[in-house]
C-alpha cells in the first residue's frame, strides 16, 4: 500500500518533471532565463551547459532559509571533492545581495554563485519552498528536482544515481 504522503510527493515530482519538459530537461524558462553572477556579468544555465560538458547540480537557496544555510558547508565539501566532474551552482532566490554575499563569504563558499531576484527558477521548476537542488545531466536533461536539505552523503548518492 502506498502511503498518502508518498503518493502526493510522487505526484508533485511527476508534475514538476512534466512541467520541466522531459525532452529538454530543464524548463525552457529556467534554462534560458539570465541570472546575475555574483562575481559579475550574467549567464544562463543553457550557456553554462554549452560551455562545459560537466553535469550540473543547481542549488536554490536564501539567507532567510535555515535549512539552506545548514546544507551549504556540505555543498561546498561536495564541490571541493567533485568540482572537476560536476558543476555546482548556487542561486540565491529573492534575497538581499549584500546579506547573501556576507553569508557566502563567512561560509567560505567557492562554487559558482548567482542571483535570481525574481524567483523565476522556483516558479519554473514548480518548487515549493527552499532549499531545492536540481540535477542536470551532461546532455542538459533534468534528472531530479530534490526539495529539502541535503547532507554530503545524500548529495553524493543522488549525483551517482542521476548524473
Structural overview:
- The protein has 163 residues and is of the alpha/beta class.
- It has a single domain (4-162), classed as 3-Layer(aba) Sandwich (Glutaredoxin), CATH 3.40.30.10.
- It is 45% helix and 21% strand.
- It contains seven helices and seven strands.
- A seven-stranded mixed sheet has the order 2-1-5-4-3-6-7.
- The longest helix has 17 residues, at 66-82.
- It is globular.
- The N and C termini lie far apart (30 Å).
- The model is unreliable at 1-25 (pLDDT under 50).
Topology:
Blueprint: H1 4-19, H2 28-32, E1 35-37, E2 42-43, H3 45-51, E3 56-61, H4 66-82, E4 87-93, H5 97-107, E5 112-116, H6 120-125, E6 132-136, E7 142-147, H7 152-162
Parallel strand pairs: 3-4, 4-5
Antiparallel strand pairs: 1-2, 1-5, 3-6, 6-7
- Overall shape: it is globular
Number of domains: 1
Helical coverage, percent range: 40-55%
Spans of 5+ residues with little confidence (pLDDT < 50)? 1-25
Give the CATH level 1 class. Answer: Alpha Beta
How do the strands of the widest beta sheet line up side by side?
2-1-5-4-3-6-7
Q: Could you tell me the CATH topology label.
A: Glutaredoxin
The CATH homologous superfamily is termed Glutaredoxin
What string gives the helices and strands in order?
HHEEHEHEHEHEEH
Structural class of the helix and strand makeup? alpha/beta
Main β sheet profile: 7 strands, mixed
What value does the Rg take, in angstroms? 15 Å
Query: What is the number of helices?
Result: 7
Number of strands: 7
> In the CATH hierarchy, what is the architecture at level 2?
3-Layer(aba) Sandwich
Q: What is the CA-CA span between the terminal residues?
A: 30 Å
Amino acid at each position: 500500500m502506498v502511503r498518502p504522503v508518498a503518493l502526493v510527493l510522487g505526484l508533485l515530482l511527476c508534475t514538476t518533471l512534466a512541467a520541466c519538459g522531459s525532452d529538454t530537461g530543464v524548463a525552457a524558462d529556467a534554462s534560458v532565463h539570465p541570472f546575475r553572477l555574483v562575481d559579475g556579468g550574467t549567464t544562463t544555465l543553457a550557456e553554462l551547459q554549452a560551455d562545459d560538458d560537466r553535469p550540473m547540480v543547481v542549488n536554490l537557496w536564501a539567507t532567510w532559509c535555515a535549512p539552506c544555510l545548514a546544507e551549504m558547508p556540505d555543498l561546498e565539501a561536495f564541490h571541493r571533492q567533485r568540482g572537476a566532474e560536476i558543476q555546482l551552482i548556487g542561486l540565491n532566490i529573492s534575497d538581499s545581495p549584500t546579506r547573501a554575499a556576507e553569508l557566502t563569504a563567512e561560509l567560505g563558499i567557492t562554487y559558482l554563485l548567482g542571483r535570481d531576484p525574481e524567483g523565476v527558477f522556483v516558479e519554473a521548476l514548480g518548487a515549493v519552498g527552499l532549499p531545492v537542488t536540481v540535477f542536470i545531466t551532461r546532455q542538459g536533461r533534468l534528472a531530479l528536482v530534490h526539495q529539502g536539505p541535503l547532507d554530503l552523503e545524500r548529495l553524493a548518492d543522488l549525483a551517482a544515481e542521476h548524473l
